[in-house]
Amino acid sequence: MTAERKLSKKAMTVLELIGEGYSYSQIVDAHSEITYRDIFRAAEDALSLIESSLDYQTRIEKIKREYPNAYEKWSTEDDVTLAEMSKNGIDILTMARHFRRQPSALRSRIAKLGLNQRDQ
Q1: Model confidence over 76-115: pLDDT tens digits?
Q2: What DSSP state is assigned to residue 69?
Q3: At CB < 8 A and 24+ separation, what contacts does 111-114 make?
Q4: Can you say whether the dihedral through the CA atoms of 55, 57, 61, 64 is positive or negative?
Q5: Quick one: which of 10, 34, 9, 11 has its CA closest to 24?
Q6: pLDDT score of 42
Q7: What pLDDT score does 2 carry?
Q8: Residues sharing a CB contact under 8 Å with residue 118, sequence separation 6 or more, in sequence order
């Protein structure tokens, strides 16, 4: 994920208290800064984070089905082969199939290695 979302300090406190077995009324009575709405918001935020995480995992799994080497570390051998293919003018889509990586990953790696690629 590009930006990591976190629960607020108040939401964390609320969820910890619920996890310790306190009822909503006990939480509100003992903590003047916490309202029922804060409790409901903490639950909504926690669910949103879980769903967001599941969406992310689903996207990664889908990408990995099409490009099994996606997000894997590049080997020195792969870099040498990529440089050679790039020098020979092999197009990005052909290289993506060869390396079993996303075309955007090939463009990024070519740029990182300072290679020239005509068909970026």
Answers
A1: 999 999 999 999 999 999 999 999 999 999 999 999 999 8
A2: T
A3: 113/79, 113/82, 113/83
A4: positive
A5: 34
A6: 95
A7: 39
A8: 89
Express as a percent the part of the chain with pLDDT over 70.
92
The total of other beta-carbon atoms located within 10 Å of residue 102's CB is 17
pLDDT at 16 over 70: yes
Give the tokens for residue 115.
Answer: 């290679």
Residue type for 40, please?
F
Residue in the block written with tokens 């089905």: 65
Q: What is the DSSP letter of 31?
A: -
Instruction: Retrieve residue 29's tokens.
Output: 């009575």
Q: What residue ranges do the domains of the chain occupy?
A: 9-66, 68-120
d(CA 109, CA 107) in angstroms, rounded, equals 6
116, 86 contact by CB (below 8 A): yes
pLDDT at 119 > cutoff 50: no
